[in-house]
Amino acid sequence: MVELRFTRRAALQTAAAAALVLASVAPAGAAPQALAPQWQPNPAVDGLKAFEGIEADRGGKHPERKYVVIEGDHWKFNIWKDDRDTTGGGDRQRTESKGMVANGAALKLKNGETWTISYEMFMPSTLHGTSKFTHIFQTKTPKTNGGPWTTLSLGRSGSKETIRARAFSTSGAPDIASTDLAPLRDKWVTVEWTITPGAKGTVGFVIRNGTGANAPIAAQGRRTDVRIPDEGDYIRPKWGIYRSVESASSDILTTYINFRNYQATKK
């Protein structure tokens, strides 16, 4: 029998050889290579196929209306004051996309995985915070219709309007981060979520007042023990406008929201 010995000197020689190989591949001083996004749709190429589906006018009352359309580099989500969804007994309205599709397949966020989802959005002055719910982002579980687990919501208390990232189905529906809505209107702003699904998951949130990595942070936060379970299925994000019409009529206007530069990366 041949005896194999792995000495300290041999180990150091092996490590040095590996370092030389790595140095020959990466330029000196190069930063670690970033992970490529699993989802980075192009509106001109992918259109509405970037999503698993669109939920709007599900009762078919307004077939002439275009609810989600492509405008140049972005998706525009329209909603009308008299729209009504088929859920809630007529007390709400909805124009939303659901899910993320890449290469013809839905991306699925599972328990224990960590995903970063980022995008830019444009909220006009006609999109108001409301005293009841107005969500412009949700995470849900398709198979069980569980959730919304987390939301990005536009709220109102008196004359003060807020934008709130919320652990919506966690006890007390606490905020992850929040700030005033007014300074973020009528411009492109940047949103980033970091989501680890689970019965006690973790969610981080950042919103920047502008675009690009150097845009000032308007609000940020991170919360653990967030209820965001895949329930044996998967977590699916939704974008658009989903709101109660039981708020003040002056806040339920015909309006829209735009999204662009979507990216989703599994870490």
Can you give a write-up of this model?
This protein is globular. It has a single domain (33-266), classed as Jelly Rolls. With 267 residues, it is mainly beta. The termini are far apart. It contains 2 helices and 16 strands. Strands 1-4-15-8-9-10-11 form a 7-stranded antiparallel β-sheet, with no helix packed on it. It has helices at 8-25, 43-46; strands at 53-56, 68-71, 74-79, 92-98, 101-102, 105-106, 115-122, 134-141, 146-157, 160-166, 175-180, 188-196, 198-208, 217-228, 236-244, 255-266.
Percentage of helical residues?
Answer: under 10%
CA-atom Rg in angstroms: 22 Å
The whole-number mean of residue pLDDT values reads 91
Biggest sheet record:
7 strands, antiparallel
- State the separation between the terminal residues, measured CA to CA: 45 Å
Keywords:
267 residues, mainly beta, Jelly Rolls, seven-stranded antiparallel β-sheet, 2 helices, globular, disordered N terminus
